[in-house]
Design goal:
disordered N terminus, 6-stranded mixed beta sheet, about 1000 residues, alpha/beta, 8-stranded mixed beta sheet
């Protein structure tokens, strides 16, 4: 019906048009054109960045569609493609919020009519998280720079911010928290630890992405000792001591192997411990232990692990002084003995409180012998508390100060940050090397020319902070074992030839002997590796013996079999203290481990004060060692040590030492004798052999070939021991008359000759001698000297006494001449009673052939025969003479058969000879000349081991007898390898003195030994 109507309507229209004059033949041509009908998609919702296709259709019932055109009518502008087709496209732009865009499609027909339709598209703001790339786990060594970098991207936008934060672990200071890269320094850690950081990135839509990164910070052992984290009280062998908090020390054997070291690290890791520092030159590990882990238990475990010499605590150490006093009034003593008489005031002598040490060690004579001489450069190291910038005892041109810094390194400093609290370092340095005569009150130490490297190890610390500014006065000032060891090493590395260490353990006189012994042995064990380092570097370490009153210390280390004792016996000196009477100080440690003594009770250096302690004895030895080294720079440290001990004088033991049976040390420092002996060595031959490569378990032989000098020996010490009893008066007259000829003859043989003059009568005791007549068992008129005039004065000073009965004190005279020990008849500790013989400084020079010319006309008193006689017996004297290599020549006046028998017993036992003289000894000059000819005609050769005894299996032959001048001889030294192939090639030395008749040094020999690493070692 609708079609009919339409059609009808169409017809009606046609009729009307016809009535108006239309023609039915033009109906089609005159039909009405209609615009195209356009249809596009329904409304759309799309995402930003999405590719969108716009599709439209158009129909034209009255014609045809000839063109299409898409156009945007509203909304954010987009770029359309194919806009002149029915299908266009565009990419939805990024939008911050939803946006509506409207497009219109216009279609045109063949008549130019157009139709259109619109579409609304909502572009949705799509919230897409940015992408973030970050390495999940990073490894870094402590104290190194760390950079963490995140890489972020946003596919539908841009990254607008970065935000880093630390979420776990030890807090660190960071930089660039808002950048893509974070930078910081990995903290110092005692144990491996993990730090956690997170990075959050945000895009322009506010969308975020977050990731974590874990930084594993590795503990790396420092090459220098690190600063302890604090202190705690620990118990060692029943004694409570202060030690570094949660820390132990491991002292490795010098020949520790790589496999042993690996096992040690594994043991530590298995016991919650880690290495804080490893000084591979000292072979010392500083180990930190986690809180709650038993250090004592760990130490016990480690001490059974191979390669470890000792594991123990890093304990506090203390300076070894008892007191430093002011306004001290020097005691004045009236002593009969020259050696005990104080230095008398005179215009050219430095006198001040506590100056008695100058005479006690024969320093004045030594200084005089050095006048006008230039010594080789020597540096003395002092490891102590600091020395202020205002000090005046040592010229600043001679002094270098170093101090440990936060990084563990020692650097040069100008002053002392603890000078207001303690002046110990100033005192020690001043005793060793003080010299300033420009001040109103002169300042004197023992060595006036040596350079000084002073390491300050007395450090202010508060809760582990190494800063003077952070510590209130007197709080937190501590010195640990590690500080001391590092200080000693620093002085050695800075060129010290001799180093003074006036420090010790914390035991006191109130502790039991067991505690005192154990404490000090552990303390020395903690020092052993640095002593071995000194041996490697040819440096002598001088230690104070300590002030804990122990009198029977006869074992160096915890184990009597510890091979580390060798270094102590060659490159370390342990020094006891004596008082104004040359007697052992009550507080000083004594025993076999102590090597030598020096004044240390109420001693001063010119500042108006005095002090007491082995702290001040040690630097007198240190300064003296520097002088000996300066005289002959070729002397090895072990040789310097040997000279100082061998040339010492005697001193008196305390009642406490006598009660426990202590007999050592026996020597008191004698600077003058040490200087004279050092002079002897200047002309001695030093032979350094080719190095011997000696793996463990291998034997090799070093052959020593040489020719005896034409003079047999290069140095000769002659002691006149003269009978001054009444019957010898005319003999003494002959001796005085011929003194010039005698001394000139002895001096003119091309040999370095020194003379001494001594005498004997007998003990001024009823039945033996007479006090009122001036009888004494021994008189020293002149100690051994190269000064011929002084020797002549000694001879001219001889005078006769009484002697009472016929036998005299020849044996006591020999005993005193060899030892200088004195004799305390009633054992009361003093030498003031009638008959006592005070200790004396004989002055024998180590390295010279020792000869005694014993002149007498009487038989000998012998306590072997007469038990009531207070003097020495023949058995003891012969043994002593043979041990010390002394040859005795007898000059017998008259024809007493008993005298002849007694003389012959002595001279034959010492390879000497007796010369019979007339009753007035008129032939004495010729006899002495003949005696010297006899002494030099031939000689017995033997070898003394100065250092490296543990490397020697045999020396063949032990003795070469009757060697004549210019005769060639050969010794063979069989060496044995005793050290493991270690982490590096190990270097050692065997030092030998070839001696004539047990006393004269003919030749010095050094045999270098190297132990190869496992890579270099090969079976032989």
């Amino acid at each position: 019906m609708k079609k009919v109507k339409s059609f009808a309507l169409c017809l009606i229209a046609s009729s009307i048009l016809t009535a108006c004059g239309g023609d039915s033949s033009s109906d089609t041509a005159n039909a009405v054109n209609t615009p195209p009908t356009v249809s596009v998609s329904a409304e759309l919702n799309v995402n930003e960045n999405q590719l969108i296709s716009l599709e439209g259709t158009a129909q034209d019932s009255t014609g045809s569609v000839v063109s299409y055109e898409w156009q945007q009518t509203s909304g954010v502008e987009v770029e359309l493609s194919d806009a002149n087709t029915s299908t266009a496209a565009f990419t939805a732009p990024e939008v911050d919020e939803d946006q509506v865009v409207v497009f219109e499609l216009v279609a045109k027909d063949n008549e130019g009519l157009t139709g259109s339709d619109t579409i609304s598209i909502t572009i949705k703001n799509v919230l897409i998280e940015p992408s973030l790339t970050l390495t999940e786990r990073v490894e870094a060594n402590e104290n190194t720079a760390v950079t963490l970098t995140g890489t972020a991207a946003d596919e539908n936008g841009s990254i607008v911010s970065y935000a880093w934060q630390q979420t776990d672990g030890e807090s660190v200071e960071v930089a660039n928290l808002t950048q893509s890269s974070l930078m910081f320094t990995a903290p110092a850690v005692d144990f491996d630890t993990t730090l956690t950081f997170s990075l959050t990135v945000t895009d322009n839509d506010g969308q975020t992405a977050t990731k974590d990164v874990f930084v594993d910070v590795k503990n790396v052992a420092s090459e220098v000792m690190s600063v302890p984290n604090g202190s705690e009280d620990v118990v060692i062998d029943g004694q409570t001591v202060e030690a570094a908090l949660n820390e132990i020390l491991i002292h490795l054997n010098d020949d520790v192997t790589q496999l042993q070291l690996q096992s040690i690290y594994e043991e530590l890791a298995n016991n919650d411990a880690a290495v804080a520092s490893f000084d591979d030159s000292l072979k010392i590990l500083q180990v930190r232990v986690r809180e709650g882990v038993s250090e004592t238990s760990l130490i016990e475990k480690l001490n059974s692990v191979g390669g470890i010499r000792h594991a123990g605590f890093n304990s506090i150490v203390l300076p070894q002084n008892i007191k430093m006093l002011s306004n001290y009034t020097r005691e004045k003593q009236n002593k009969k003995s020259l050696v005990q008489r104080m230095v008398e005031p005179s215009a050219d002598e430095p006198l001040y409180a506590g100056d008695y040490w100058i005479e006690a060690i024969s320093a004045k004579s030594g200084w005089q012998s050095l006048e006008g001489r230039t010594l080789s450069p020597v540096t003395v190291g002092i490891v102590d508390t600091g020395i202020s910038a205002e000090q005046t005892s040592i010229a600043e041109s001679r002094l270098t100060r170093i101090k440990v810094q936060l990084d563990g390194q020692f650097t040069e400093v100008d002053g002392d940050d603890t000078e207001e609290e303690i002046a110990h370092g100033l005192w020690v340095s001043s005793f060793a090397a003080g010299y300033n005569v420009s001040e109103e009150a002169p300042l004197y130490g023992v060595n006036h020319s040596t350079d000084v490297i002073h390491a300050d190890v007395y450090t202010k610390r508060c809760e582990g902070v190494l800063s003077a500014l952070d510590c209130p006065l007197g709080l937190g000032v501590k010195t640990y074992v590690t500080d001391l060891i590092a200080g000693v090493k620093a002085t050695i590395d800075n060129g010290a030839n001799v180093v003074n260490i006036s420090w010790g353990d914390t035991s006191t006189c109130t502790d039991s002997s067991e505690v005192r012994l154990s404490s000090r042995r552990h303390w020395r064990l903690n020092q052993t590796n640095v002593v071995e380092y000194a041996k490697e570097k040819d440096v002598l370490l001088v230690y104070s013996a300590g002030n804990n009153c122990e009198k029977d210390d006869d074992q160096l280390l915890v184990s009597a079999d510890d091979i580390g004792q060798d270094a102590w016996k060659t490159n370390a000196l342990i020094v006891a203290a004596t008082d104004i009477d040359n007697k052992e100080a009550s507080f000083t440690r004594m025993g076999e481990v102590v090597n030598i003594a020096a004044p240390g009770q109420n001693v001063g250096w010119g500042n108006g004060n005095t002090g007491s302690g082995t702290s001040f004895s040690a630097p007198l030895v240190t300064g003296s060692a520097g002088i000996v080294k300066g005289i002959n720079s070729t002397l090895k440290a072990a040789e310097v040590r040997d000279i100082l001990i061998a040339t010492g004088s005697s001193f008196s033991l305390s009642d406490e030492s006598i009660e426990v049976g202590t007999t050592t040390p026996t020597k008191l420092l004698n600077l003058n004798s040490a200087i004279q002996t050092a002079d002897l060595t200047v002309d001695s031959v030093l032979e350094v052999t080719d190095p011997v490569v000696l793996p463990k378990g291998i034997n090799k032989t070093a052959q020593l070939n040489f020719t005896l000098p034409a003079t047999t020996v290069t140095a000769l010490d002659i002691m006149f021991l003269i009978d001054v009893s009444g019957s010898y008066d005319d003999d003494i007259t002959s001796l005085k008359a011929q003194a010039d000829n005698i001394l000139e003859n002895l001096s003119g043989r091309g040999i370095n000759v020194a003379f001494g003059v001594s005498a004997f009568s007998d003990f001024p005791i009823d039945g033996f001698g007479d006090e009122s007549s001036g009888d004494e068992a021994f008189y020293l008129l002149q100690s051994v000297t190269t000064d011929v005039d002084a020797a002549k004065e000694g001879i001219n000073g001889l005078s006769t006494y009484f002697g009472y009965d016929s036998p005299e004190s020849q044996l006591e005279g020999l005993y005193q001449v060899v030892t200088g020990a004195g004799r305390d008849i009633d054992n009361d500790g003093s030498y003031t009673e009638v008959g006592d013989v005070a200790p004396t400084n004989i002055g024998w020079r180590e390295g010279a052939l020792k000869v005694i010319l014993l002149a007498t006309d009487a038989p000998f008193h012998d306590s072997d025969v007469n038990g009531s006689y207070p003097g020495a017996g023949k058995t003891e004297v012969i043994s002593l003479l043979q041990r010390e290599g002394v040859t005795v020549f007898g000059l017998q006046s008259g024809s007493d058969s008993d005298a002849t028998t007694d003389l012959e017993a002595i001279v034959s036992a010492t390879n000497g000879q007796t010369f019979l003289l007339s009753s007035d000894s008129n032939e004495i000059s010729e006899a002495i000349s003949s005696a010297l000819d006899e002494a030099l005609k031939e000689i017995d050769l033997s070898i003394e081991v100065i250092s490296g005894e543990q490397w020697i299996e045999t020396i063949t032959p032990v003795l070469i007898e009757n060697v004549k001048p210019e005769e060639e001889v050969t010794f063979e030294v069989k060496l044995k390898g005793i050290k493991n192939a270690s982490l590096e090639t190990l270097k050692y030395e065997v030092i030998l003195w070839i001696k004539g008749d047990g006393s004269a040094v003919i030749r010095r020999v050094v045999i270098p030994i190297s132990v190869p690493t496992s890579d270099d070692s090969a079976p032989e």
